[in-house]
Amino acid sequence: MFGGNLGKSICLGALLSVCPPVSAQGTQPADIPVHLQVDAGTPLRLYILNRTWFRIGETVQAKFAEPVWAFDRIVIPAGTTVQGQVAELQPVPAMVRTMAVVNGDFTPLKHAQLRFDSLVLPNGQPLQFDARPSVGLNTIYVP
C-alpha cells in the first residue's frame, strides 16, 4: 500500500558469463563482473504485512509487490521482505476531519509517510538502503 522512492542507489554485484568468440589459441577470457544498480528515484511497489500504529518511529514490515529490475536482470525479486518505520504523520484537512466527525467517525485521521531502510534478499543476504518517505497508494492494483 505504501510505496517509496529510493533515496540512494542500491548497488548489487552479479557475475554474468560473457562468452566472446574463442581466440586462435582456444582460450576464453575470465568472467567479467557486471554491477547492476537501481537508480535513485525508482519507485518501489510495496505492501504492508501487518497493521501498524500511527506513531512516529513505529516499525513497519512490508514486501515487494513486484520485482525491481536493473537493465535486464531482476535485482530484488517480488516477495522480498523490507523493514522500515513511520517517519512522518501529516494531519488531514479540517474539512475532511469535520465530515468524518459528522458521519460518526471519531478516529484520528492522519497520512503516514514511511521510510524503509533494510531488506533481506531471498538468499538470506541483508542489504541496507535508504528510501525517501512517500504517501502510499490506496490500492496495489493499477486499473
Strand arrangement, major sheet: 10-9-8-5-4-1-11
Mean pLDDT: 75
Total number of strands? 11
- How is the main sheet built? 7 strands, antiparallel
- How far apart, in Å, are the first and last alpha carbons? 15 Å
Globally, the shape reads elongated
Oligomeric state of the chains?
A: single chain
Percentage of residues assigned to helices: under 10%
Low-confidence stretches: 1-24
- Tell me the β content: 35-45%
Number of helices: 1
Order of helices and strands: EEEEEEEEHEEE
Structural description of this entry:
By secondary structure, this protein is mainly beta. It is built from one helix and eleven strands. It is elongated. The two termini are 15 Å apart.
